[in-house]
Write a sequence for this structure.
């Protein structure tokens, strides 16, 4: 493949995982694609940004966006989307639960003609206190948006360039990119992806609190979808 891809990784206090994640991403893509890797340090209070700067010294294809405070995943993705230059853009989380070996599978699905491919953590390696709110959230979101996918909030997603250049993200709207993209006329699909147990630290997000916030964000999304009709 001669496609140029951008791999985007939002980071918030994931210093323990970054070197391993970088090595896995490189192993997955280096011989297959032209690439850039964009890390977005979303106001980390550990030494995440120093580690990323060390990676940049080794590989100039690595880029860093550093926020002075924690703005959230939507803002992190939005800034990286603006900077990205890839024909295809892949997003993934920094905690090593997303498997970089899935990048090629996501790109292959885009090559079939889809505009966006969302990962589906079909066999999710998380405790019940994360699984249950996520399942409720996905069912509610599927019902209200009409987008028939199983896992709206999976970090592993792939996009054609025109999709990420057309979407404006803020607040918690990153959870609803599939719905917003579909409303704009882009084609959406999903594939099952490998999901791994957390190796370091703990989740940076809440459980039922996150569910409640997601439902409030969905109200904003419904207004956007109605206004765009």
């Amino acid at each position: 493949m001669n496609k140029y891809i951008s791999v985007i990784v939002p980071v918030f206090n994931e210093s323990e995982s970054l070197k391993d994640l970088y090595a896995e991403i490189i192993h997955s893509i280096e011989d297959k694609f032209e690439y850039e890797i964009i890390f977005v340090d979303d106001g980390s209070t550990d030494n995440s940004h120093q580690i990323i700067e060390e990676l940049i010294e080794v590989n100039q294809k690595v880029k860093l966006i550093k926020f002075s405070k924690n703005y959230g995943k939507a803002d992190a993705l939005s800034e990286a989307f603006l900077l990205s230059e890839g024909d295809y853009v892949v997003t993934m989380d920094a905690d090593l639960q997303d498997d970089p070996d899935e990048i090629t599978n996501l790109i292959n699905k885009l090559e079939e003609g889809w505009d966006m491919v969302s990962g589906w953590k079909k066999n999710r390696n998380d405790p019940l206190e994360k699984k249950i709110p996520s399942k409720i959230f996905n069912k509610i979101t599927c019902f209200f948006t009409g987008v028939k996918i199983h896992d709206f909030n999976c970090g592993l997603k792939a996009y054609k360039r025109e999709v990420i250049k057309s979407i404006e993200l803020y607040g918690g709207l990153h959870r609803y990119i599939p719905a917003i993209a579909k409303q704009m006329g882009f084609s959406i699909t999903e594939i099952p992806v490998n999901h791994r147990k957390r190796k370091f630290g703990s989740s940076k997000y809440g459980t039922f609190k996150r569910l409640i916030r997601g439902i409030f964000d969905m109200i904003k999304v419904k207004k956007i979808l109605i206004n765009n009709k």
About this structure: The longest strand covers residues 34-42. Residues 20 and 27 are 11 Å apart (CA to CA). Residues 208-227 form the longest helix (20 residues). Strands lie at 4-11, 34-42, 62-67, 88-91, 116-120, 157-160, 188-192.
